[in-house]
Design brief:
This protein is α+β, with helices and mostly antiparallel strands and 156 residues long. It has four helices and eleven strands, in the order ααβββββββαβαβββ.
Length: 156
């Protein structure tokens, strides 16, 4: 929770003109915000698998799970801000819950892959995205030096 917001809310609750119900409502709002922040700070679940050298056409890294499944996003569909949206549950190799994803969207940390007017439209779009997913190898080299030799780039 933002320390400034906490200090302001705490001072407001101690004012004589704040009713007990107003103080309780303020406390409940602060507690809900704290729990949401804590869920994100404590982090997601464990890694979904081992990173491969492949990415999707959307430049999302592909991981191989312990069961041998190849995954890059594992979409979920939920309702937020008056819209149905599809959101990848995997970010940087870690799996997130719907509540964590909602919070991350509200904070501007991630974006949905698509937004729709109905659940059916959203689920259909998620299925289409999944069926058209392609992969290719992308270089994830550790780096190194390159130089020019005879007008050509070469490793040094």
């Amino acid at each position: 929770m933002n320390p400034i917001k906490f200090k302001m809310a705490n001072e407001w609750m101690q004012q004589e003109d704040a009713t007990p119900q107003e103080a309780l409502n303020t406390w409940n709002e602060m507690e809900a915000e704290f729990k949401a922040n804590r869920a994100v700070v404590q982090g997601p679940g464990s890694m979904v698998g081992t990173p491969t050298e492949e990415v999707t056409q959307f430049d999302r890294r592909i991981y191989e799970t312990p069961e041998g499944e190849r995954v890059s996003e594992k979409s979920t569909t939920f309702f937020l801000n008056g819209q149905w949206m599809n959101v990848p549950t995997i970010h940087n190799g870690r799996s997130f819950t719907d509540d964590q994803l909602r919070f991350m969207i509200k904070q501007g940390q991630i974006q949905p892959t698509s937004v729709h007017g109905s659940r059916n439209e959203a689920e259909e779009a998620a299925g289409q995205r999944s069926s058209m997913m392609k992969s290719h190898v992308k270089g994830f080299d550790d780096g190194g030096r390159i130089g020019l030799q005879g007008g050509q780039l070469v490793d040094q």
